[in-house]
Amino acid sequence: MSEIEHVRGDATTPLGRGAEAIARVPDDIGGTGEGRNAVTVHDHGGGHVTEQDIDVLVLGGAGVDTIVYVPELPLPYRDSYPIDSGIRTRAGQTGDFTALGLAALGLTVHHLDLLGDDPEGDLVRAFHRDHGIALTAVPQPAGTKRAVNLVGPDGRRLSLYDTSRSRPGDRLPENTVRALAARARHAHVCITPPCADLLPLLRETGVTVSTDLHDWDGVNPYHEPFAFGADIVFLSAAALDDPETVMRDIAGRGRARLVVATAGAEGALLLADGELTRVPAVAPPAPVVDSNGAGDAFAAAFLHGLLDGEPPERCARRGTVAGAHACTVPATEAAALTREELLARETAAGPAPSIP
Length: 356
Prior knowledge:
The chain is an alpha/beta fold and 356 residues long. Helix content is 28%, strand content 23%. The protein has a single domain (21-349), classed as UDP-N-acetylmuramoyl-L-alanine:D-glutamate ligase (3-Layer(aba) Sandwich), CATH 3.40.1190. Helix 1 packs across helix 7 and helix 3 packs parallel to helix 4 (198-205). The longest helix has 15 residues, at 312-326. Residues 1-37 have low confidence and may be disordered. It comes from Streptomyces thermocoprophilus.
């Protein structure tokens, strides 16, 4: 394959006229040979291409996880453990689940990342096809990103990331990124390689940008381009002794106008216009079984509210509703809230008190 193709259902047809800007395969994505330079677009949910027909462009974070439910965390050393619930490999890393959450809420989503020509890549492609999410896949000779998630009885997670599935020279094609960003209202950038290099390019296009730093400790320099290069920054407070200081540092040193730190059962902290507000947690609608994807669900619901024109406090409230729901869904399943469900649960939970 030597050009981008538009794949819908079982039929393969050329991309529509509106996508001519990304119908040329750039020469700057590295490697040699037709297979390396072939970029495939899988559009499973849309019709014709028009200007700004993408609500959110998600960059990076496509991969597979192997889920193992363990009797406790940390797991004491033993020669072996029987895993009665099974050990399951499924598509869905941070970019995949953020895209899923956004799409379930009724937004038009396009996902761009590197994928291997391997069984794991096939799982990711099938995930997007099954959920009607458009996917642009850039070939990755090192293979599709993968991880092993150990999940304890209380839903806590320990993730083991396979960093061998990336290479120092990996890049996403700039022409493709520019063309997709020109069609998007917003871009959400995952912290997986090679997305840090895309932040200056996205700023040039004028699209607003969000990112999720996950459990950043406030020190690791890897996260800094994301923390200081995005307009909206999500992170977990799990590794932070003083979340407020880190949040204010992000806003002070970078571009962020909104910084949100999720804190599990304690809710979330929102920094907007220099004011820090605590948003209480929402009670989960069922027993907590798995925290996988809770942060992605929070970010998706927050962005949905923001694109709907809601104030940041209400966006954060919706985030807590979606995050609580995600904790009740096993990581082996993909069951994001719809817009109707989100709004109904937000109403049932009542207005969030504003607590400085």
